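# step 3/5: fold
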Amino acid sequence: MPHTNTSVVDNFFRAIERGDIDAVRAIYAPDATVWHNDGGGDQGLEANLDILGLFSRAIRGLHFDVSRRVDVGDGVFQQHVLRGRLSNGEESALEIAMYLAVSDGRITRIEEYFDVATVTHIIAVANASDAGPSDRR
């Protein structure tokens, strides 16, 4: 049975929620790129998997509340809120809009819009929790 664009995208987000980075990797095309509105340009596959792994380790109960998902022919447009609890006990809610290009059942490109300050904060909290007690300042 062929994959639909929306089923590929759904499987992608379920794998992230499970923290299954190997499954995420399998859904991405080998040459997939990810663009964020942070001014950093395109991100390669491995760099994106590193960030997704950090988020899945650092955000307890990570889940996506999808408010809109539309198949647009060559991919999917989605709006969602990434929710969960950070290691410092803080509840996090990151609103995201993205386009996910899908070809032959794999994600080939993501263009993602989010609040850069919120993502920077999540990464800072995650990195602080990864540091050992003697490394914290």
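# step 4/5: annotate
Residues 116-130 form the longest helix (15 residues).
# step 5/5: archive (pending)
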